[in-house]
Amino acid sequence: MFAAFILIFWMVWSANRDVYALSESLWFTLLVVILQAGMDFNMPLITNEWMLKHAVLWAYAALAMFAGNRWGTSFMFTVVLAVAAGLGYYWLYGNAGTFVAQYLAA
Asked: Strands, E, within 1-106: which ranges?
């Protein structure tokens, strides 16, 4: 939930500037990993599944930041896009592990 809030805040904060979606979403993903490790009080077990899950989350964050930069014509529409992206990120963060595990099992 905290990661989704950070994504919303990041998108609203970048409403009136050019966003470099790939690099900023990578920094966002690294920030989420560091904060998650700090909140869990342990380092993540880095496996192929973990890496693929965070690659999917990175791609989603990049797509969300790109969409907010491209179609955020007014502040309120940017806020709506940011909230929608945050809700989608929250859902994907909870379910990406299942999707990745099913993909790797196939």
From this structure: none
Question: Tokens 């990578």 sit at which residue?
Answer: 26
Q: How many residues does the chain have?
A: 106
Closest CA to 81 of 59, 66, 103, 98: 66
- The two tokens of residue 14 are 């970048």
Q: Is 11 exposed, middle or buried (0-12, 13-18, 19+ CB in 10 A)?
A: buried
> What is the pTM (predicted TM-score) of this model?
0.92
For 11-45, write each residue's pLDDT tens digit.
999 888 888 999 999 999 999 999 999 998 989 88
Question: For the stretch 32-60, what's the b/e string if a residue is b when 16 or more beta carbons lie within 10 angstroms of its beta carbon?
Answer: bbeeeeeeeeeeeeeeebeebbbebbbeb
